[in-house]
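Input:
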Amino acid sequence: RKVAIDASMCLYQFLIAVRSEGAQLTSVDGETTSHLMGTFYRTIRLVEQGIKPAYVFDGKPPDLKGGELAKRAERRDEAQKLLQAAEEADIVYLLGNAEDVEKFNRRLVKVTKTHAEEAKQLLQLMGIPFIDAPCEAEAQCAALVKAGKVYATATEDMDALTFGCNVLLRRLTFSEAKKMPIQEFHFDKVLEGLELNHNEFIDLCIMLGCDYTNSIKGVGPKRAIELIKTHRSLEKIIENLDTKKFPIPKDWNYKQARLLFQEPEIIDPETIDLKWTEPDEEGLVKYLCGDKQFNEERVRNGAKKLHKARNTSTQGRLDTFFKVLSSPNPLKRK
DNA sequence: AGTCTGGCTCAAGACGCG
DNA sequence: GTTTCTTGAGCCAGACT
DNA sequence: CGCGTCC
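Output:
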């Protein structure tokens, strides 16, 4: 089974989570290796389960996202200051605030171009395909699913549904599968359950608060559902809304936001040829064990696992883990 | 009473030995 | 050529019906 | 499983 994965999101998680004593894993020259560690072993795991992953990297964010990104930058600056304060306190007291330093450090993490390039190089050596999306990765993933190039998108981000991704898998990482089952969402079932069509669903998501616009104060999940079901479009909702109780945000650019969901900038999936090839064991050893100082035995072992899984078409084993969820509670967005 | 929103916080991986 | 890019979940206060 | 370790 072929599955599309938002690479940036994975890298972000690895950079935050893969740590030892609060610090990222690094090679001797101080270069971070957490993202490579995570990508290498998780991908092997997936392939061993008969899954063929294709990683999708973000391109440039849409202009409309500027406001949201500015907010994030602001939060980052704030964390930076707090971090500095905590560090200084540490120097003074030599103990105590270590966990604060750690906490703020995590909040400062961002995925750089270099992280992405290194991950791509690794995937190349592993024989795993990847794509550079022109814009939002989730949009490109959704397009791949729609075109039948992959079976599903594996993500924690519900925006994939808004982009029209038919099948969405949550918690595809198996180490946690012990605690939490894999969830499989089918967009058509979700729409059925909500009794909405795709465009109405998009308008709903805009009201619930997407990255592209502000939302209406006082309107949360309950009211939003109510509104979309009675009026069926943002235009009608605005016409009929008591704007004294629920003021429409100034310069509310919902039409453009809607367009970004309906017609996102993507590469035509038909021009994309996903190929899973033999892993380059020697290349992997050279790359990971040379500069990055991974354990050679582990890397060779990983390469062999990739090779083996590739040549034994054990598919289907996975199906038993899947639970198909249609409409339980997609309100859980923000 | 109960309902709903909004602002706050936190947490986020994987391997392998015992 | 400079910048770049992820989220859900839970808990609690407070406004409103 | 729990927990130290991965780099």
